[in-house]
Amino acid sequence: MAEIHELSSSESQSVNEKTATFIEKDPEGYAGKGIATATYEVDDDTSVDEAIGIITDDIELNSTLQLVTKTLDVTDDPTLNPYTFRSFFLGIGLSAFGAVIAEIFYFKPQTILVNAVFLEIIGFILGEAAALIPRWGSVGRFLNPGPFNMKEHVFITIMASSAAVCALGTEQLAAQSLYYNETPNAGSAIFMLLSSQLLGYGFLGVMRKLFVYPTKMLWPLQLPLASLFQSLHLNKTLAKKRLKVFWYVFIFIICWEMIPEYIFPLTAGISIFCLAQQHSATFTYLFGGANGDEGLGFLSWCMDWQYVGTQSLVLPLDTLFNQFLGYIACICLTIGAYYSNVWNAKSFPFMGQVLFRADGTQYNQTEILGPNNEVDPALVESYGLPWFTTSNAMSLLVMNVGITAAVVHITCWHWNDIRTIFVWAKPSALKAHYYEAKADGRYKFWTKSTYVEKFPGTEGDPHFAGMRKYKEAPTWWYIFVLLASLVIGLICNYQQKTGLPWWAFFLACLTAFLFLTFYAPLFALTGFYYQPISAVQMIGAFMVPGRPVANMMFTLYASNSMVQGLYMLQDLKLGQYTKLSPRACFTAQIIGTVVGAILNWVMMNSIVSNQRDILLSVEGTNIWSGQNVQSYNAQAVAWGGVGHQLFGAGGTYILIPIGLVIGLLVPIPFWLAHKYWPKLRLNRINTSIIATWMGWLSVGINSSLLPYFIFGVFCQGYLRRKRAVLFAKWNMIVTAAIGGGVQIIVFVLTFAVFGGSGAAHQFPEWWGNNISGNVDRCEYMNG
User: What are the transmembrane regions (predicted)?
Assistant: First the structure.
């Protein structure tokens, strides 16, 4: 193994103002490199630590172990206490903010995720401010136990990020209210949310070590978060400089976003083509995209960071490349299918998530429902089968391809990384493990509470070794969460009369467990996953046909539980990188999830009550949209209500489930070709990402994609490679400032003028604020 010599603070004189040198000592000629020296340009303001980070980031890393030891500090101070009054107070406060803003974003024309880096930055600012409280008397020392430490900070951030998600259960509750005139009582609704959110955590009681302990389980999206924690706490001088830039960008974005979001909405989708031709349906479909479900937004320019987002600023260039391939293919596929009249495309709107009748009118599902919301075959016969818009159906098809392509991709390209995960399942391994556990008392899982000394795949990992001093969260904690979630979920299922039998409920939970087994290594190794809702709905439809609400409940527990499990795994890995004890991670996640679920429900009720008509409309507005709820309900009716007629043999949409079979095949040609012609670099092709993005434009505001790719390539293709110092110093901070500024102003405008808790107050109509049509001046087609 190569011996890496890194510059340290004591060697600061060896770094001059303009260059920094990295020497790799390799007496054994590891990887055939011998001794290598590299010189890199840095600026006068670059610290030694930054120079080291820039250099090691650019040098090829031969293993995951080298990556995590070079990019992250492995030192730890076990005396630091995460359990302080301010950590709980700030954690719960940020959890409340994150949960409310996540639910607001869910009812936007384009679904946006709460920026975890922003939560990390704002948590640091508030924590440092809390450390200024005078320590007078016992009260003062209770409020301010001393300097704000990194473990408090990680504890706060994990709690807030656990809350800052929109619980899928609120989508089901919204659908029941909007389409079935059913509103479960508050107790039943909240307990259902808690059950569905925590069930995935319970599954990890027997799985978490497999996907957290091994070094290969990198969880790459957590590396920038862990690195930023260390930058803020291990170098206070540098932290002050970065926070100064953060505030400048943060305040600018807050002021700027007032323009595209409220005063001048045209800037959310400037389309030269639509401004030149305002009475062409084709131009609307191809170039329009500033309103929800308007068009594909090709060559439109969006100046609203709410929709451009910051994800492309941090995604790897290869991921952006695959997304771009899928984006171009999506435009060609959608336009081609519509004008070829595939699935009677021209009879329906160009885009839309609701169901339609054959004559193009909106499908009224109540016409086919009998008692207990079950589909009556005789009523279906007289009323007719529902139809999807072709863009929506195409999206379901290619995203099904992406679901199974992900499994095959991870198996083909990363089998050596994940095969050790399944060794434990061999009968011989299980037998050996049983006798070994019996010999030293480990079968008594409730007594085993320390980090294990050895675990396959952790050899030489200082991050894993550094956690041995902390007590592991007992397995019985997870088992208790699992059993409680199952019992509460089953009770809520019957209390709400969803029609889902008990055996199907448990099969839904088992489905989530199986998906988690495959998607956890995919997410851990690549940082990418796609929620397999369509596949889950198909499984539920064939188990319990003719019951749309039952299908929604099945989907909730089979899909959402998997996602929550993935979130908990990545937070546990973040805890390992930052040396926050597993028990503290567990505590933060449970508190954040409980707070988040309750406030998700409160905010959902307010939005559904005040924006009901808009949420039921096909297009919505550029402020509010029911596209997520519409899609969830439409697929529940299609799959759960009349799935056999639509997707079975001879059905109109039989190709959609066949997409799962196609997905098993599409990665293989690229994998085989790469084995014979590696110079083609076909290993950069990820068919799962491409297929998923081929259905990306079927919904929402699409005017943001051009700046999304341009800014992403600028940061990852130019700054990262040509201006590595600037990228290393400022990219994460600027990203957090942009995301945070957007979230703050959206939060304020939602309640001040957008009608989040009452009547909306539109900005006066003028040329740049076309209230009566599409804001980009394309012809309005969904009136």
Answer: 88-106, 112-133, 154-174, 186-207, 245-263, 324-343, 476-496, 502-528, 549-569, 581-602, 653-673, 693-719, 731-754
Provide the residue ranges of all domains of the chain, joining segments of one domain with +: 3-62, 85-216+465-616, 268-404+654-740
**Cβ density class 89-126: b for 16+ within 10 Å, e for less:** ebbbbbbbbbbbbbbbbbbbbbebebbbbbbbbbbbbb
Q: How far apart are CA 541 and CA 641, in angstroms?
A: 8
Q: What radius of gyration do the chain's Cα atoms show?
A: 26
* pLDDT tens digits for range 76-129: 888 999 999 999 999 999 999 999 988 988 888 767 777 787 888 889 989 999
Residue with tokens 């994150």: 98
Per-residue burial over 179-192, b if 16 or more Cβ lie within 10 Å, else e, is: bbeeebeeebbbbb
The b/e string for 358-374 (b: 16+ C-beta within 10 A; e otherwise) is eeeebbebeebbeeebb
Q: Which two tokens stand for residue 592?
A: 């954040």
Backbone angles phi, psi at 217, to 5 degrees: -75, 85
Question: For residues 300 and 268, what is the distance between their CA atoms, to the nearest angstrom?
Answer: 9
Q: Are 271 and 778 in contact (CB under 8 A)?
A: yes
Encoded amino acid at 222, one letter? Q
Rounded-to-integer distance, Cα 615 and Cα 107, Å: 8
User: From CA 716, how far away is CA 724, in angstroms rounded?
Assistant: 10
Report yes or no on whether pTM surpasses 0.85. no
Q: What are phi and psi of 270, to 5 degrees?
A: -85, 110
pLDDT in tens, 531-561: 778 788 888 888 888 889 999 999 999 988 8
